[in-house]
Structure formats: C-alpha cells, structure tokens
Write a structure and sequence with these properties.
- The protein is an alpha/beta fold.
- It has two domains: 3-163, Rossmann fold (3-Layer(aba) Sandwich), CATH 3.40.50.720; 171-289, N-(1-d-carboxylethyl)-l-norvaline Dehydrogenase, domain 2 (Orthogonal Bundle), CATH 1.10.1040.
- 52% of the residues lie in helices and 13% in strands.
- It has helices at residues 3-9, 18-29, 45-50, 72-81, 100-111, 126-130, 142-147, 152-155, 167-195, 200-208, 215-226, 235-251, 257-271, 284-289, and strands at residues 10-14, 33-37, 53-54, 64-67, 91-94, 116-119, 122-123, 135-139, 158-163.
- The strands form two sheets. It has a six-stranded parallel sheet with strand order 3-2-1-4-5-6. A three-stranded mixed sheet has the order 7-8-9.
- It starts with a helix and ends with a helix.
Length: 290
Amino acid sequence: MTDPEKSRRLVGVIGLGLMGTAITGRLLELGFLPVVWNRSPDKAVPLVAQGARWSDNPLAECDRIIISLFTSDIVAEVLDQMGSALRAGHYLIDTTTGEPDAVLRLGQRLASQGVHYCDAPISGSSEQTRRGEATVLVGGDAETLTACADLWPVLGCQTHHCGPLGAASRMKLVTNLVLGLNRAALAEGLAFARAMGVDPAAALGVLRASAAQSKVMEVKGQKMVANDYSVQARLSQHRKDVEIILREGTNRALGLPLSEAHLLLLLRAEAEGLGGLDNSAIAKLWRIDS
C-alpha cells in the first residue's frame, strides 16, 4: 500500500459509545484503518484487539475524522482539547445528534482555520449501523461530500444531502420526532392489546400487516413483546433529543404537544431507572402500571 493509499485508509473516530463502536466495526470490516479515541480508554480495548489503533489525538494522525459524541457542547469541548492538531485540509464528519445552531457556530469557527466540517447524523440504531442498514443525513458543501464519498457507505446504505451545514441536524430532529412518537405509540398499542386479552405477539403480527405498520415495528416490536431491552440506542439519549426538539419548537413559536407528552413519559422512564436501557424500554412503563 503506498503512503497516499494508507493515508486515505486511516480514518479517525472520536467517541466510542454505541454508535462510535458500530462505526469503527464497519470501518474495520470494509478495510479501513480506524484510529480511535474515547474519554474512557477501556472502551477501545476490544476494538484495538480487532485491528483499530488507539491515539491520544486522532486529529494528529488522520486527514478525515468521524465524530460520534453525546451533545454538540461535548463535540466543541473535545475539539478544543485536541485543537492544537487541527489544520487546514482536515475533514470532520460529525454524526452527533446536536443543536443546529451550535453546529453552525462550530462550523464557522472551523472554517476560519481551513477545516472542512459537516453534520452527518445517522438515522438508525447502532445495530442497524453495524449491519450497514442506517440512513445518513449530511449537511455541508459539495467538496466535503466528494472528499468523503467512500465513507458514506460505511455509515449507511442511503445518504441524503440535506443542504448546507446544519440542514442535516434539523432534518435529524424531524425524523427523531416522528420516530420517537411511533415507538411510544407502539408501546401503548401493545399494552392495550395485552389489557384486552390479545396476545401482544399476535397483535404485532397484525399491526405489521395493517395500515398502522411502521419501521419501528420491525426494529423494536419484538424487543417490546419479548421484554428484551438490550441496548441498541439508549432511552436517555432520546430524551436528550426530544428536549432539543422542544427547544427548537419554542424558538420558532411552534407548539409540539405530542412531543411534550412524550418527554414526560421519557422523564418518568428515567425516574424508574430505565434511562440506560434501549429506547424501546418505554414499553415498560405500561408494565409498571399494570
């Protein structure tokens, strides 16, 4: 492998939560050489054993870096910590579901240093990402999209260019609003079936064949029926997203009453100790009540 080829196969990954770990696994599977960092280095150990390389600062070793952190504030904080290695010509792909305005502010600051930055939140769970089945939403300029063309199939099976920087973050909030409400509706529907003496597994089968069908039923339905809340995406993370959604609605003088009710359910779920479980664990609220 020549030096330019090796340089292109080196891809930094900052953040090894559920999504960052799934992305690193995809990079390894598709022949890239991921250079990884996480606040808790122990999360990198199994990935290093599979072929990833640890770095105290992937910005110093890679031209292209994928970021997967909890909030936009954390992204800015981590980049400040690693900022001495930032240079013109870097390409940063930020998969964090964050605040659109914060994404724009960060992008403007990075652009002044000659750094190419795009928001690229992923619609799909870590498991769907691991299988290459997620959808990638991208906000940024054409140059960045082209320079990272070989990475979009790593992140998902579909890529949608939503517009300039920040557009993908706004679109991700739209998708998460609908997705979360679909999940809560399915949880309530299965609880209603159980209360009426209808077997939830049978009800799920009928729902999937009916006009009520949604993708949520394929991904989370069986988990709810089986009371299996092993984590694909944490409930607390979706609570964070709904709070962002409601702030954005308030900023635009738009009432979002269904999302307000959804947030109350998620806060109650966290109070019941469900925040660290899969987001489908919202279904446990109806089991607690019954």
